[in-house]
Design a protein that fits this description.
The protein has 19 helices and 15 strands. The protein is of the alpha/beta class and 460 residues long. It folds into 2 domains: 168 residues, Aspartate Aminotransferase, domain 1; 247 residues, 3-Layer(aba) Sandwich (Aspartate Aminotransferase, domain 2), CATH 3.40.640.10. The strands form 3 sheets. Strands 4-10-9-8-7-5-6 form a 7-stranded mixed sheet, sandwiched between helices. A 4-stranded mixed sheet has the order 1-2-3-13. It has a 4-stranded antiparallel sheet with strand order 11-12-15-14, with helices on one face. It starts with a helix and ends with a helix.
Length: 460
């Protein structure tokens, strides 16, 4: 009998979590069980997932913004089939693949002025590592600046520019010469840049952890200061790019013209790992200029045919279905409707975002009995209330969301850009229902807290 992946999945589906316990990450299995996320998903289409029992879930995680075009988009899937049928010569080393050139051309066409050189990598962290490395080569300077709350990846290099203590703990010392500055503190930024030893300042135009948005003048002025002191300016668009914020790149909201842009996640529509670093030609030349350094930086799978084809198809879908514009329109509608819930629910402290990247931040309630419940869960672990809301949305409404970061009472929404009014109504109605329950001390939201508090206390 020949090998069949379909048959193998059918035969072993029930072993899913046992396999992860034995061979991959038992801690992750335990977390999913505790928060009620241990589902056996068997199908994904558009904005939805289905489990083995046939239940449908609205996915507001989108694979952390991998599925901007929705899951299993038929046009991108068709291109993947075409590529397999073509049996093209893939990964011919000492080659200049056609599809890589075509995808580079399409990306450059969408970039701010001056960005016309592309390097293809495999992941967002890979792309950021590349940008940091190239910035050092182009400037001859050793230091890199990054923002508090920043998240650029979890490799050793990207962890060194990560503002989250939870992620850094246990892996230090990290790379030297990486220093944090506070968002919106232009004086602090200039104080560091004035030393003229900073190769690059890296920012997420909108920060993924917490959905923090800078003051209107911060990024343009930060870019001006970088130019003044000879520091390269990197916009990490791994999560915010590809239409997520209602522009192709989030940096367009501020009219920025960075020296680097990094893109990944939904660049392939979720089919193949791929990322890209788009930079100024003079930076690229500083790395690869001499003929004997033409391969001084490379990655084995960086220009593979499947990834390049998927990238071309994803950009085509983004344009044809006007998903960037849809993100702006539907995102504006969702943001407005969620913000209106603040009038009904005092624990919703802030609703912010751009396009379909939205953060909902909670605050302590005023009534004494509710405040006591809030204080109890927060004493066990900071940010635990937001996790209760996440669990309630899954349990009662089959909606997948995530907490916006470690130790914060923020929920982040990253829906596929294909959602419409029906999904907006589902999301708003679900949040309204969960917050109404949270305003009752004996409500179903607080009933989820016992096991979480017990687990948090056991860790202490």
């Amino acid at each position: 009998m020949g090998f069949s992946i379909t048959r193998l999945i059918e035969e072993r589906q029930a072993d899913q979590f046992d396999l992860h316990r034995r061979y991959i990450n038992p801690s992750m299995v335990r977390v999913l069980e505790i928060i009620g996320f241990a589902k056996q998903y068997v199908r994904g289409e558009g904005a939805y997932l289905w489990d083995a029992e046939g239940n449908r879930y609205l996915d507001l995680l989108s694979g952390y913004s991998v599925f901007n075009m929705g899951r299993n988009h038929p046009k991108i899937r068709q291109v993947m089939h075409e590529m397999l049928d073509l049996a093209r010569p893939n990964l011919v080393k000492m080659d200049c693949p056609l599809l890589a050139g075509l995808l580079a051309e399409e990306l450059v066409r969408r970039m701010p002025p001056g960005l016309d050189a592309v390097f293809f990598a495999n992941s967002g962290a890979d792309a950021v590592d590349t940008a940091l490395k190239f910035a050092r080569a182009a400037t001859g300077r050793p230091r890199v600046l990054y923002l508090d709350h920043a998240f650029h990846g979890l490799t050793l290099g990207t962890l060194s520019v990560n503002g989250g203590e939870v992620f850094r703990k246990g892996f230090e010392p990290l790379l030297p010469g990486c220093d944090m500055v506070e968002m919106n503190d232009l004086e602090g930024l200039e104080r560091e840049l004035r030393k003229k030893d900073v190769a690059a300042f890296i920012v997420e135009p909108i920060q993924g952890k917490g959905v923090y948005i800078p003051d209107d003048d911060y990024l343009p002025e930060a870019q001006r200061l970088c130019r003044k002191y000879g520091t390269l300016f990197i916009c990490d668009e791994v999560q915010t790019g590809m239409g997520r914020t209602g522009k192709f790149l989030a940096c367009e909201h501020w009219g920025l013209e960075p020296d680097f842009v990094t893109i990944a996640k939904s660049l392939s529509g979720g089919y193949v790992p791929v990322s890209a670093v788009i930079m100024r030609r003079e930076i690229h030349k500083a790395v690869f200029g001499p003929l004997d350094r033409a391969q001084v930086h490379s990655t084995t799978f960086g220009q593979n045919e499947m990834a390049m084809a998927a990238g071309l198809a994803a950009l085509h879908v983004l344009d044809e279905e006007r998903l960037v514009e849809r993100s702006a329109t539907v995102g504006g509608m969702l943001l407005e409707r969620l913000a209106a819930l603040k009038e009904r629910h005092e624990m919703i402290g802030d609703v912010r975002g751009k396009g379909l990247m939205i953060g909902i931040e909670f605050r302590p309630p005023r009534p004494m009995r509710l405040r006591a419940a809030w204080t109890a869960v927060e004493a066990a672990q900071k940010g635990l209330f937001a996790q209760l809301v996440v669990m309630a949305l899954m349990r009662d409404h089959r909606i997948l969301v995530q907490v916006g970061g470690p130790g914060v009472n923020i929920i982040k929404l990253l829906p596929p850009l294909i959602i419409g009014e029906e999904e907006v109504e589902m999301i708003v109605s679900a949040f309204d229902d969960v917050m109404t329950e949270a305003e009752r001390v004996r409500g179903r939201v607080w009933s989820l807290g016992g096991q979480l508090v017990k687990h948090a206390m056991s860790r202490q």
